[in-house]
Predict the structure.
Amino acid sequence: EVQLVESGGGLVQAGGSLRLSCAYSTFRFANYAIGWFRQASGKERERVSCISASGGYIYYADSVKGRFTISRDNAKKTVYLQMNGLKPEDTAGYLCAAGSNCLGAYNNWGQGTQVTVSS
């Protein structure tokens, strides 16, 4: 079964940085857009960022613009989310998902990695 596996979460102080990784073990990795989502306790899931299959389209939620950077390494079949200037409100479970493009449905989801930012 083809899976997405997130890693890189943890506990960090406000102002700190983390880099999340999303490894997608599919032969056609280069054909997929990869999105990062987060869900905090008691809140709805929020789309944080997305990178298209070609890397030519990138989306960031307003709440993370200027602080988060998404990138992909097709040779490693991995998408990264570099998170700088972390705030307590960034605390959430972060999940990655694969789809045909950033604006459509996501067909395959990872299990998530927890990010906790202390004040």
Notes: The chain has a mean pLDDT of 95. The longest strand covers residues 92-99.
